[in-house]
Amino acid sequence: MRILVTGGLGFIGSHTVVELQNEGLDVVIIDNLSNSSIEVLDGIERITNKRPVFENIDLRDKNAVQDFFNRYSDVQGVIHFAASKAVGESVENPLLYYENNINSLVYLLQQLQAKPEAHFIFSSSCTVYGQAEQMPITEEAPVQQAMSPYGNTKQIGEEIIQDVAKVSNINAVLLRYFNPIGAHPSIEIGELPLGVPQNLVPFITQTAAGLRKELSVFGEDYPTPDGTAIRDYIHVVDLAKAHVVALQRLIAKTNREKVETFNIGTGKGSSVLEVIQAFEKVANQKLPYKIVGRREGDITEAYANTDKVNNELGWKAHLSLEQALDSAWKWEKKIRGSF
Ligand code: WQD
């Protein structure tokens, strides 16, 4: 069985390809290189001694997607990462997000529903919960009105998959990620944010590397112990391994009509100030930062209840916040040439 990884040259996708190849699985990557670089293929090969097959395809091109599946008729599993994912950009340019994130999903599913058997893992996000009422967040927490078109595309994507799975042979699972951070311990692959990083950890590492003057902490007036917002930061390698386990469970699953949802997090919340303190410890240097106003659309707190994924998938996160920050820092220094 060959596994298609869409967005496989991206941050989470590339780390997942490494874990799939480590398990001896045959992988083909589709990526349109809009938010990644071809050098990531070299990094994957250096880690696993195996270069994945790569197809530079834009999933918005329906004919190109159909042609791909005609040429790769042995693809029976798909892990779908490819999507635009910048919350702020989605507010500015909603149609870019609806076209890219929804049309691509539809074209993939159209090809899969024609197959006698197809396993499908959807990259979703805890953003669908908005500000959940209760912490830690379980999969039963209500999906709230999306705070951005990006978040809405994840909600709509989940609903499309639920509808299609009921009337096809598509055997699907939805993985709702919390906050992925860090880099592979080999430092051969990691996060490559284009432009000014939107996310906390790449902004921290770029500040520590001297690319940014200082980190702006978005708000210190949240109802949390130290006033800064709390998130569940999961090492990207732990997250990648969750996909391998989820695929193995999908293949073994008998009741294939039911689409299961899993929160993929560590189960531990960390505030922005706690992340800064942890980073200063692993980097052994002070991080320049200033407190500014809250960022539009940010929630106070989100961390996962991991009982379901622990018990039903048999997966749990093992790597710590410090290990993730240490790998992110080592990666930053390497790509800045000071490693
Ligand atoms: C984390 C915390 C910020 C930057 C988003 C998406 C989510 C997923 C991960 C795609 C927040 C604070 C950040 C900065 C700061 N993306 N922060 N200064 O917003 O929790 O989640 O990215 O899948 O779907 O919603 O992650 O890293 O942007 O922010 O103070 O320069 O760090 O306010 O509290 P977020 P983040």
UniProtKB/TrEMBL annotation:
Belongs to the NAD(P)-dependent epimerase/dehydratase family. It comes from Flavobacterium chuncheonense. It is an enzyme of class 5 (isomerase). Keywords: Carbohydrate metabolism, Isomerase, NAD. One of its GO terms (molecular function) is UDP-glucose 4-epimerase activity. Pathway: Carbohydrate metabolism; galactose metabolism. Gene3D superfamilies: NAD(P)-binding Rossmann-like Domain (3.40.50.720), UDP-galactose 4-epimerase, domain 1 (3.90.25.10). This is UDP-glucose 4-epimerase. SUPFAM superfamilies: NAD(P)-binding Rossmann-fold domains (SSF51735). Its cofactor is NAD(+).
